[in-house]
Structures are given as structure tokens and as C-alpha cells.
Protein: Peptidase A2 domain-containing protein
Amino acid sequence: MAVLLMAFLHAARAENAASSCRYTNFATFTVKPINGFATIGGSMNGSAVAMMFDSGSQRTQITRRAAEKLGLALSHSNTYGIGLGGESMSYTTRLDDFSFGKLAWRGVRLGVLWDMDKSFNYDVLVGADILFHQDVEISMANRQIKFFEPSACDQSFLAYWDENAASTSTHAIAPDDLRQVVTVHINGKEASALLDSGASTSIIDLAAAARAGITTESPGVVALGSGGGVGKHRSQMWQAQFQSFAIGEEIISNPKICIMDLYGAARSDSNHVAATNTMLHDQPEMVLGADFLHSHRLLFALSQKRLYFSYLGGQVFGTSSKTKLAEEAASP
Structure:
């Protein structure tokens, strides 16, 4: 009887905690597809610009094309950017005004990434420093990004759209790097994965793939050409079939996922190999890109350090996000 009473009291406390939760949607942004990525129109120094929500970028940054187009005055920076293409020179610039949606800043200083893949047609990366200061939902199917303010919701189930949504723990890479990382299992082997809306496809690092029993020489592995991003270089990519991929309660059997040396270009560019290797040691071993985001609805409940997600149907990996977004752009 005492055990039953304790269980009842525990359930009652949980129900009361849930009922007192107030989860306020204080901002919603409608995203638009441009060149395969989720973007929003914004303004810099009074000029219209295309901004991309990039959860894989540590900071909000301006691209070289925008800096040149707007004739921005640049200052040298002691920092540099690192991406799939290796290292990028980085500058800073001061903007009189910077805004998108209802958010606006005046007299703000932002970084400028100089070396990027020329196929990227956007002006600003809206990074983790803006995206992950509060709970945020990314729903590519609905073309929406929503921000929430929780109150007394620590014990509440927050996936309001789906009572059967899965969840897993999530954490920032570092106190000054708010990009979100989750634990996944590839062929049963644990790996860390970055949720990256700025990557067109999901990619597993070669080292993590090897731990899971897959190399570029494994049967059935197919060369795909090269991929790039931040940095001057493009790196070889392959597609491999794995036995399983798991995140939280979701398990995908026999997925075909891209593999690549995620940090090879950065290592080859570096003049300080030991320091670079130390910095890269704690970086994620997989990127969950726009293909994963298109097939799921996600809520980064940072107040709980949890990621809620629902599978929406369709192929999770390997389907071109550019094709999907082009189809969406053509739809009414």
C-alpha cells in the first residue's frame, strides 16, 4: 500500500508540474527555400539580403559576397573559420543596422567569412549564437522556425504536436559554442552528431564509419564526387550502406549515408597541427543535415537539454534537400 501511495503521489506531482507549464511561442519565422537551404529575408545597412538559418555555424556571420556587394569596410580578425573546405580567412565589420523579422540590432559588429564554396547563394549565416539562446522548433515541412519561452516546464512533455514524439538528450559543444550535439548509434557504435541546417546532406566522418565497420574500400561503397562549404577546398565524398542508424527511440534499418573526412581539409590547411588536432578532438563525428531535418519535425528544448523529434515520412538520408526545397518553392 505504501508503495502504491508513493507511486500515486509521484504521478500526481508530475501531472501538477505538467499542468502548471506555460510554453509561450513568442516568435515565428517563415522560411523560404533558396539554393536548397532555409532562408529568410533580412536587412543590413538598409539593403535587402538573404539570410540562412545555419544551426551548424557557431556564430552569425556575413559572407564575402555580401561584404563585397554592400561595400562593407573590413577589419582584420585574429580568428578564422573552419568548415568542410578547411580554413577560411575571417574579418569583422560594423553594421549600422542588422535585422530580420521582428529582431533588429544597431551598431553591431559581425564576422565576415572570406573563403566559401561558390555554390552558396546567401549573404548571412544566422548561427547558433542567435538560434540557441532559447527553445526553438524547426519544422521544414511547415517552413517555420518558432521560438518558445518555457515557464515551470522542467518535467513536461513539450512536443505539443505529437504525443508519440521521440526524444533524446542534447547539449552545447561548449559554453561559448551553442551548437547542439546528440548521441547516435551507427551499426550499434556510439557517435556524436551535430544538427546542422546549413548542410545539404547528412555525413558521417570516415573515422566514425570505420568504427562501424565501413571504409571507402568496403563492398557497395560508391564515390559521389566532392563536397565543400566554408574554406577553399572540396573533399571527396562516398555513399555507404549501414546496417542501422539510431537516434533516441528511432531506428532506421539499412540506411545509405554519405561518408567523408569531415576535418581533413582543416588539418591540411593548418600551420599548427597539434593545436588544430586538439581543437578538432571534441568536434562531432557526424552531421545531421537538411535531409534529416526535412523528414523530421524537431524541437530543441534547451530548457530541458532535450531534443524532441517526429518522423514525418519519406527517405531520411540521401534525398537531395535542394530537390525537396525546389518542389516546395514551386508549390502554392
The longest helix spans residues 2-19. The CA atoms of residues 245 and 251 lie 6 Å apart.
